[in-house]
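Regression test case RT-17, inverse folding.

Input:
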């Protein structure tokens, strides 16, 4: 079984690829948006690229356009599970 991307892993990826420090617990807040943290679609594109390299598959198009961490995690985890 392929492990799911967690809020903590997402926070680390955002730090590494977008240069923005985000508390993983804040990413779990219902209704929170990436905009609140200053993470834009280019930052998410970097995160998607890293995940694609790690897993050797294409992540669902549009993941980088997600407005919330919940949307992003769902898109990524669905793509990874489908490609497993």
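Golden output:
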């Amino acid at each position: 079984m392929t492990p799911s991307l967690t809020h903590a892993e997402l926070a680390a990826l955002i730090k590494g690829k977008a240069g923005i420090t985000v508390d993983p617990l804040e990413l779990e807040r219902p209704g929170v948006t990436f905009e609140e943290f200053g993470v834009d679609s280019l930052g998410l594109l970097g995160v998607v690229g890293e995940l694609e390299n790690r897993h050797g598959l294409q992540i669902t198009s549009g993941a980088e356009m997600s407005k919330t961490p919940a949307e992003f995690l769902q898109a990524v985890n669905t793509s990874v599970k489908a490609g497993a």
